[in-house]
Amino acid sequence: MCNPRRVEITLTRQVRESWDREVERAAEVSGSVSGEARIRQPLDASMGGPALMALQSLLTNGFEGWIEQEDGCFRHDVEGGYVLYDPDRHELEIVALETAEIHESGKARERITGTYQGEIESKGEGQYYDDGYGGLTEDAARAEAGKNAESGLDQALRQRLDAEADAEEARREQALRRQAEQDARQRLSQRAESLEHELRQRARERLQEVGIRGRQAFHQLMALAYRDALVGLARRRGVALEDIVAREDGQYLEIDFVLP
């Protein structure tokens, strides 16, 4: 027995082969949904003009916790909602707010198809001994090389078809992801719509307690407005500033002065 010899066979084939693949993409979206309940209270009947003017001055100059909105109203957040004061209408609005974070997923599925046409090539190898040791004759080696080359052609064809499908899948990637996201957003919208009614009902149930908190915050502001209005009245009537005594303990505000 001597060193083995090698036989190599190269095969080529013209092919026209169709392929198809089902592809799927998923997307997730999230958002928030809210439900509100509101109650409005006009203040013209309960607060006089000087007090309303003093209230406006306090808010315009900046008062802790009250933030001016784009429409000119002033907002103060409380647990479960917020209170709005409209200086143009002299109106107080209590808003109970219920929110929920929601998440949804969507899918897009599509079958893509195509046809590959071209030439593929494969090489096969076989080994033999001059003395045919172990049955490894030259004829056996050529048969093995041909078999390996045929197998290689099949593998090369599968690789070409997979490459064609991969390329088409990549080309459709963005469109599929947009479809999946659109599906997810549609599901999110449907869920938000069904949840909104429940949140509005929960907000209505909490409106009274939110109103208590909102009015407490506003009454603190209103007390200072009355203080400024009364001090302004006293000063206009000739009372010296040092003769005006104001006492405040967080719950009550007292102002003492004697009009001449």
Pick out its properties:
single chain, 260 residues, alpha+beta, five-stranded antiparallel beta sheet, two-stranded antiparallel ribbon, 3 helices, 7 strands, 42% helix, rod-shaped
Number of extended strands: 7
Q: Strands across the major sheet, in which order? A: 1-5-4-3-2
Round the Cα radius of gyration to an integer and report it: 42 Å
Strand content: 35-45%
Q: How would the global form be characterised?
A: rod-shaped
The helix content is: 40-55%
How many DSSP helices? 3
Structural class of the secondary structure composition?
Answer: alpha+beta
**Major sheet description:** 5 strands, antiparallel
Low-confidence stretches: none
Mean pLDDT: 86
Oligomer: single chain
